[in-house]
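Section 5.1 Outputs to date
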Amino acid sequence: MTMDSGLLLDMYRKMVTIRTFDARAVEEFHEGNIPGVVHAYIGEEAVAVGVCSALRTTDRIASTHRGHGHTIAKGADINLMMAELFGRSNGYCHGKGGSMHIADFSVGMLGANGIVGAGMPIATGAALAAKLEGGDGVAVAFFGDGASNEGAFHGSLNLASIWNLPVIYVCENNRWASGNSAAATLSVEDVSVRAVGYNIPGVTVDGTDVLAVYEAAQAAVQRAREGGGPTLLECKTFRWRTHSESRGNPPDPRPASEIELSQSHDPVPGFIDRLVEQGVATREQLQQADEEIAAAVESAIAFAKSSPLPNPEDALTEVFAP
């Protein structure tokens, strides 16, 4: 597909930013600098970037417990994100939410969520709001293969179909829900076939190919903007890390062959080859971009470490709406 070189380079920079951000977050977590938990998005970068590149800033997304990639792809500030991971008072949620609860309404990021499948009803509501606003805004819900077994999945798709809402449900099928293989917990091989039960389109794409994801997302978004209703988009992908980082590094429940398979499907090198082949950039230019991104992430870590911790007396502020 023919695409603007500026968009292609922006997609590349966002993929590398997600990879670098989460790689450093994992390191800082195991050094004891980040409290709580960290769920790394490494290996899945093409999904968040491919989908969010088809959206406007004003379009709204709802994320998951593994939400750093979605947040960055939607245009959030990595300084404020890193400060939130470090539990600092100037983070996105003033240090109260941590890794799993970052939100930035200014870029349409309605929030990450620690509850499996909980983002789908939120995105469904955001799609209803977009429809009531009278424009052509859309909403997107990201969720994992395990969440497609939750009642929230079925209730959301059913309601969105009945009300013909402008929403795209994006299943990031990384083949494992926590420690359980999708092969053992799903009644179908492709989550997308479940769309048939709700009379909406279901599409499965290679989630390690950012352009394939973008093309499918763009079609679903255009359909939603034109009043065509919801779409279920399944992206087959891989996560490189265990389900969540934890102190002491318990063993990854996946077989070694699964871990090796995940790292053999790296979405970044293949995209580099395509950018070079199409004359969008040279390898030297992309390497320079990598270095700039690495420096920006290090700057974000320095910002977080130098930021103030929350005051104990502020623990109950911003808990309830005025």
